[in-house]
Write a structure and sequence with these properties.
Blueprint: E1 13-16, H1 25-31, E2 36-40, E3 53-55, H2 58-67, E4 73-77, H3 82-95, E5 98-102, H4 116-124, E6 130-136, H5 144-149, E7 152-155, H6 161-171, H7 175-179, E8 185-190, E9 195-200, E10 207-211
Parallel strand pairs: 1-6, 1-7, 2-4, 2-5, 3-4, 5-6
Antiparallel strand pairs: 7-8, 8-9, 9-10
Helix pairs in contact: 2-3, 3-4
């Protein structure tokens, strides 16, 4: 493993919202310009994208990553369950210098604790140039480690009050602001400058809701 570089700015991102609200749209746009991507893809959403290699086999995944140690590769691992997710997280951590996309994390994590390999990827991955994009429909049930470590949080409409509360608390906004979202609307929170913006997929600019100030 390469020596850690704490100067790397691989900012983690967190995307949540009901099915059909465009959670993965931003990620798929990013993937067009990012050369190295490894995806945990339980619902097989990415395999048909241009340039993405799809695999359901753990050995194939490892061999592909090894043969592209310092090369461009976009690969989706289509698998389910905590064991497969932890395997994928270990692969992402050892591959380094990539974007690691984790779909539907509420199915493989719990609110109380991140699984070990996933937790290591979150806490230490940035030092090795790994940017995490975590995606979920149910933020209240997913682990809070990635949510608290995300530099950017983007939410679409959320049907469950518990999910709206969990995200509003982390974004320091009113639950009503999330309740008013309709499909394709989103609110994005950036921790670096404490800004909160509202936008709509397909529109070029987001409307500023509030510029936040440090307490």
């Amino acid at each position: 493993m390469a020596k850690a570089n704490t100067a790397l700015k691989a900012e983690h991102m967190y995307f949540c919202g009901n099915s059909g609200t465009g959670k993965s749209s931003k990620i798929k746009e990013m993937m067009k310009i990012v050369p190295r991507v490894i995806i945990f893809d339980p619902d097989d959403e990415y395999g048909e994208l241009s340039g993405v290699v799809r695999t359901t086999n753990a050995t194939e995944l490892v061999n592909a990553l090894r043969s592209h140690k310092n090369k461009s590769l976009k690969i989706a691992y289509v698998a389910e369950g905590v064991k497969a997710f932890e395997f994928w997280a270990n692969c992402a951590f050892n591959w380094q210098n990539c974007v690691a996309v984790a779909e539907e994390i509420a199915d493989v994590t719990t609110a109380s604790k991140a699984p070990p390999a996933w937790g290591r990827l979150i806490r230490r991955g940035r030092k090795y140039g790994i940017q995490i994009c975590a995606v979920t429909q149910r933020p209240a049930e997913a682990d809070k480690t990635i949510l608290s470590n995300a530099a950017v949080i983007r939410t679409g409409a959320l049907g469950r009050h518990a999910d709206r509360e969990a995200i509003a608390r982390e974004m320091d906004c009113k639950v009503d602001e999330i309740s008013k979202l309709i499909p394709l609307d989103y609110i994005e929170y950036r921790r670096a400058d404490l800004t909160l913006e509202r936008g709509r997929l397909g529109e070029k600019r987001a409307k500023n809701l509030r510029i936040k100030t440090k307490k």
